[in-house]
Structures are given as structure tokens and as C-alpha cells.
Amino acid sequence: MAKAVNLEKLAKDMERWPKSWAGFDSDIPIGKEIVQVMRLFLLAMVEDQLSYTTINRHIGNLWLLGGEIIYDVHTDPELKSLDGKRLILRVVDDEGGPISRHLATEEEQKAFDATCKKLFRFMSQKHSRK
Fold first, then answer.
1. Is the entire prediction scored with pTM above 0.85?
2. Average pLDDT, integer, range 88-95
3. Phi/psi at 39 (nearest 5 deg)?
4. Which pLDDT does position 126 carry in this prediction?
5. Where are the beta strands (DSSP E) in the chain?
6. What is the mean pLDDT of residues 115-122?
7. Nearest of 74, 72, 68 to residue 24 by alpha carbon
């Protein structure tokens, strides 16, 4: 039997993400908005019955993406006026995501880009799930 995603544990883990990304306390509300969008995406993958391994890989990449977005907010203060959804859509598209300074290989970047593409497609759906 395939290993199931523990939604309760996932929710608790994601609640910690904004603080883990934050350089300053003012980053936490922005991080929470980002997590709200990411949570919907992960729930959709669970509903689609993707494997535990696949979802777990996407979880790691989403955490990395959130950190990259918060870093961008620090380098461009004008971004603080954008909500979580707009911040995500600013860096992901149908080709992938930002170049991550934390990934060492092209293979890791390709896996990260795959998550970003999937997130972009999810967010671009006209009738995205709620």
C-alpha cells in the first residue's frame, strides 16, 4: 500500500514556513499569503492522488520557492505592496521559476522548475479549485 500524505502534519509544517523564510518580522504576513496559495496547490495534488514521493518533492521545492520570493522582496521593497498570489506569479511561469541560489546542479534546478511550472498551471486555471 502506498504511503499517504499526512495532511495534518503538512499543515503544521507549512505554518512554520513564513517564519523560516523571514529575515524580519515584517516578512511573516507576506509569507503567510504565499503559503495560502501553496496550500491550495498541495491539496489539489492530494485530491488528484499523486504519490507521496511526488508530493513530497513538490513540498521541498515550494518551500525553496517561498524563500526565493521573500529574498526578492528584500532586494526590491516595491514588491511588499503585492499580495502572495501576485508575488508567486511574478516569478513562476510556463517555463519554470527563478534560478535558485541554493541548488547545486542543473538536475535540481530542472526539478524545481517542474514544480514552478505545475504551480503556474494550477494558478492560471480559470476555475481553480478552492
1. yes
2. 96
3. -60, -45
4. 56
5. none
6. 97
7. 74
CB atoms within 10 A of CB 113: 20
- Return the pLDDT at 127: 47
CA–CA separation, 68 and 74 (whole Å):
10
Q: How far is CA 124 from the centre of its chain?
A: 15
Helices 84-91 and 106-124 cross at an angle (nearest 10°) of 130
C-alpha cell at 1: 500500500
How many H helices and E strands in the chain? 5, 0
Domain ranges of the chain: 7-124
Helix 52-75 and helix 84-91, axial crossing angle in degrees, nearest 10: 100
Task: Identify residue 10 by its one-letter amino acid code.
Answer: L
